[in-house]
Specification:
The structure is a single chain. Helix content is 71%, strand content 0%. The protein contains 13 helices and no strands. The protein has helices at residues 2-6, 17-35, 42-56, 60-63, 67-78, 90-102, 104-121, 129-148, 155-167, 175-193, 201-217, 222-243, 247-251. The two termini are 49 Å apart. The model has no long low-confidence stretch (mean pLDDT 89).
């Protein structure tokens, strides 16, 4: 898993020298501490970082390595997973990187990475109607839970959910209740679309034209009807709450 995560980090070819130097410096500092070695003087330490930076940018095989892989190589090398050594020198660290790239562990991780990438590219089968309904009911439970805890449900999603429930004959409001919902929706839309809310002249002209259309259509305006359905879902949730009915009970019987 560590390697799979490391593969996601930026490649050497995509990084500036300063970023590479910082990551190498951090990894080397941990290695010195782990081994109990004294960190060299600043000048020598910077020379080592520069050397390794140049080494990593010297060939395409190293340029394609991710920066976190380099840190892992240094960590594993300091654990003596690539053989014994005496002191941390440029040749020692480059040897760790070469050994890491040739290791079976990295090769296996690369195979797994490629497999995951291929699976993600493969077209996913369309969910069956039963699966679609299960997913819908699962989301409906979340929305109802949000309603009970006072979390606002976005009108667009509430409208969509109401439509599905109505088509499924789970919600069946009579004409009187539908008209009441449209009247409430019209009041809300009027308030939101009032040209007085405009912040400049251009917006005021646009809002005025839209407001005039709204006044002509009133409760038959499409946006009012959509808002009425959103309000209808909230009222349906409120009914469930009052009767102590769960979502699972509601979708399995005519409400």
């Amino acid at each position: 898993m560590e390697l799979l995560e490391a593969f996601k980090s930026p490649k050497i070819s995509d990084l500036q020298g300063s970023r590479i130097g910082t990551k190498i410096g951090d990894a080397l500092t941990k290695a010195y501490y782990h081994l109990g070695y004294k960190i060299p003087d600043t000048e020598d330490f910077i020379k080592l970082q520069i050397y390794l930076n140049d080494f990593l940018n010297s060939e395409k095989i190293y340029q394609a390595v991710s920066i976190d892989e380099v840190s892992i190589a240094i960590k594993k090398g300091s654990d003596r997973q690539y053989g014994e050594f005496f002191g941390i020198a440029p040749a020692t660290v480059t040897g760790w990187i070469r050994a890491f790239l040739a290791s079976d562990n990295r090769k296996d991780a690369k195979v797994i990475q490629l497999s995951i990438e291929e699976q993600s590219k493969a077209p996913k089968p369309e969910p069956t109607p039963e699966q679609q309904w299960e997913n819908f009911v699962s989301r409906l439970r979340v929305l109802y839970s949000n309603f009970l805890t006072g979390i606002i449900i976005q009108p667009a999603e509430a409208t969509f959910v109401f439509k599905v429930l109505r088509r499924s004959r789970i919600i069946n409001f009579d004409e009187s209740r539908r008209n009441s919902l449209k009247a409430k929706a019209l009041v809300q839309i009027k308030k939101e679309a009032d040209p007085k809310r405009a912040i400049n002249k251009v917006e005021k002209r646009r809002m005025t034209a839209a407001f005039e259309v709204l006044l002509q259509n009133e409760t038959e305006d499409p946006q009012v009807i959509n808002r009425a359905m959103a309000l209808g879902l909230i009222e349906w949730f409120d009914d469930l709450k009052q009767f102590g009915t769960s979502i699972d009970e509601a979708v399995n019987e005519e409400f």
